[in-house]
Write a structure and sequence with these properties.
Distance between the termini: 36 Å
Order of helices and strands: EHEHEHEHHEHEHHE
CATH superfamily: NAD(P)-binding Rossmann-like Domain
Radius of gyration: 17 Å
Largest sheet: 7 strands, parallel
Shape: globular
Number of domains: 1
Number of strands: 7
Strand content: 15-25%
Number of helices: 8
CATH class: Alpha Beta
Bound molecules: nicotinamide-adenine-dinucleotide
CATH topology: Rossmann fold
Helix content: 40-55%
């Protein structure tokens, strides 16, 4: 309890999957969370499940004006921001030949431009206190070759932009850290879609114990890393990347 006590956090795409688990664990550990999403119904449901320390704001991360409005609202409500989790995302499965320019642009406007805008517009609030933390959701798609080119392009950009921001903050002596998390194979609606299991019951992943090769992980497996990176426990960690993939990148054959 209390690993992020008193901190203010913004989690984008928090209505579902990983973002919801991130918001939940941050509240359980003492933070106040602003959970944003384009899906208003799911966003409202999410904050009602998490409790009064979570607030929902409708937010399309690909919109510059939405970012300006969300940050102004957080300033009005709390006067500062300690944690930014750039999590919102979508996936088109299209390969390099069949991917349309529209799919490529939508993917990158949400996951590449959205992360850039989030970091840019959150900085004035993040640098107000002694220890701001940005965590950007990249993917194993920034390490491994996947045919889905639009998604891979965006996640590669996230991996690189994270290091740009980390080194900028160091060079300018700004009290903000920036790290990326690279999940792979976590059971969420996005992975159900990617694996053609929409409408089926989620796979029941054991909550305890080491997971076998080929197993999926749970959103909590990622949220635990998010919590560490959001907290002051990781104060000496910036510009780093964290694989949460049960060893997939180390050896894709297993
Ligand atoms: N699940 C995995 O195994 C996995 C692996 C690697 C990376 N990721 C990344 O983690 C993040 C969360 O994925 P997830 O698996 O929880 O997926 P998910 O589909 O369950 O959740 C994504 C959320 O983002 C929201 N969203 C989509 N477009 C948005 C926009 N323009 N503005 C604001 N919100 C928007 C959706 O409404 C949804 O609530 C994504 O960035 C994804 O690429 C997931």
């Amino acid at each position: 309890m209390g690993r992020v006590a008193g901190k203010i956090a913004l989690v984008t795409g928090g209505a579902s999957g990983l973002g919801f688990a991130d918001a939940k664990i941050l509240v359980e550990e003492g933070a106040k969370v602003i959970l944003t999403d384009v899906d208003v119904a799911k966003g409202k449901l999410a904050v009602s499940e998490i409790g009064p320390s979570a607030t929902f704001i409708k937010h399309d991360v690909s919109s510059e004006q939405d970012w300006i409005d969300v940050i102004n609202k957080i300033d009005e409500l709390h006067g500062n921001l300690d944690i930014l989790i750039n999590n919102a995302g979508i996936v088109f499965m299209s390969d390099p030949v069949n991917c349309t320019l529209k799919e490529f642009r939508i993917s990158n406007s949400i996951m590449s431009e959205g992360v850039f805008l989030g970091m840019k517009y959150s900085m004035p609030l993040l640098q107000k206190n002694s220890g701001g933390s940005i965590v950007n959701m990249s993917s194993t798609a920034s390490h491994l070759g996947y045919p889905m080119i639009a998604y891979s392009a965006a996640k590669g950009a996230v991996r690189s932009m994270t290091k740009s921001m980390a080194i900028y903050c160091k060079a300018e002596s700004l009290p903000v850290r920036c790290n990326s998390v690279h999940a792979g194979g976590i059971e969420t609606p996005m992975v159900q879609f990617a694996q053609g299991r929409v409408g089926e019951a989620p796979i029941d992943v054991p909550a305890q114990g080491v997971l076998s090769a080929g197993s999926l992980g749970t959103p909590k497996d990622v949220a635990s890393m998010i919590l560490y990176l959001a907290s002051d426990e990781s104060r000496f960690v910036t510009g780093a990347e964290f694989l949460i993939d049960n060893g997939l990148v180390v050896s894709p054959a297993y």
